[in-house]
Amino acid sequence: MLSCSTADAVLQEEAGPPGAEVALAAYSTSQRAPQRAQELYEQQCATCHGSQGMGDGPAAYLLSPSPRDFSSGRFRLVSTVNGVPTHDDVVATLKRGMPGSAMPPWDWMSAEDIDLLADHVLDLAFEGQVTNLLAWAVEQDEEMSEQQARDLVHSRLTPGELVDVGTAAPSDPVTLQAGRRLYMKWCAPCHGADGTGSGVEEQWNDNGSPTNPRDFTAGIFKGGTSHTDLVRRLLAGMPGSPMPAASLEDDSEAALIAAYIQSMITPGSMQKVQQRRQSLTVGKASGALPREPGDAAWSDAPSSYLALMPLWWRDLRVEGVLFQAQHDGSEVAVRLSWEDPAQDEELLGQPLFSDAAALQLSAEADPPIFAMGATDQPVEIGLWKAAWERDREYVRDIEDHLPNTMLDNRGELPAPLHDLFVTARAVGNRQAAAARPTPAEALSAEGLGTLAPLGPVQSTWNAKATWADGYWDVVFTRSLAATAQGEVALSPGTTVNVAFAVWDGAAGDRDGQKSISIWHQLEIAR
Questions:
Q1: Which domain holds residue 148?
Q2: Which of 350, 304, 297, 295 is nearest to 510 (CA)?
Q3: Of 122, 169, 279, 322, whose CB has the highest number of CB atoms within 10 Å?
């Protein structure tokens, strides 16, 4: 028979090193699993976290940091002294997202739906812990009933007392100097004296995944930057990560450290990384529709900054794009601008990758998470590549990239057979087209791994781009009316959902390695 003390030790071991707590809350699935909660989770969360919350969704392999495995019992953002999250902790994470990862915010959802999602996440965590404990008992050839497992898990999953966050400290020089002295003792060994995360080269989470100390100066904080947020991180730690709960002599010292950390944040940096759903207006052009990046008409179109997040997080990244759009009643033009120090426009080589950008449209009132649509919920995608911009005059071949390479026997073939020698072209692969009149491609998708050309009819997507002084400017154009099967109709007075993606060739971006936005609402003005 498995003793309660032994099983309790198992839960402790699963929670991490000695002293760590299982970061869960005690919720019963039978009481808190309405159909609506399950539907919300499947639509918004399962793609990354998996249907059972084990961090094994179909998009998980594309993401770093990896999606949380709820069954592990480790939640980073907690407000209790025992490291167990409250319902409000999970709600706050859903609303805010987790900057520094691919976890977006869901603050646009109703409070009722967010509450349901939070409950369901905690249910999955509870059930996952029970499953893990029963599996461990089988491996150890010990007897344990399901009820015993539930009782043991329940005994450890009740949130403890809330961390006393106290009162915020002022930001005067005397207070900040006192805060820095404490910071140098408790924080600098990992985060560095300058707050850039330079204190250690390698760190590892409890699940073996690599991590690194936060760079405070960059303004990227997973749990927020308010006094309350920072004090909770200091006094509760971040379970499952190398960030421990600080053993301060006086909890009031946490307010001093928090004030000093706030002073290290570079002004404006937080606004550059915050994901917030926006309404993007496509205004009516007063004259001819601007089709070139340098057209003067763009000076009359308002700009919106849209933050991007790399699916595989890196500090050196495309942080965001500027969005502008106009229409003339029959066509729409969208201009995207972003900083990119290197002009990467070559694909003719194994280690070479092209800069690229895409916008994604959905006519769904409530589209699935931004990851390429879902079954019976297709998305339309307009894709531009810098390498295709060079192919506009003629489609380049390997000898254009490596002019001194010895030509193979294609040079001796009669002209009609050239295309047959290029096997991809012979079977109709559009990536090997013999001519590319536009560097834009129209695509559709109904989930990961389903990307395909948009319909059998040629789409009206077009693009024109320029790179100068370390910036790309790309103009996408398309008919407002749907001209091909799968296109989204864009008529004046309507609103559709739109998301964006950028690939940085110098960073090796390609396919699913990219920086993306969340869904925004595209409003076509009358």
A1: 4-156
A2: 350
A3: 122
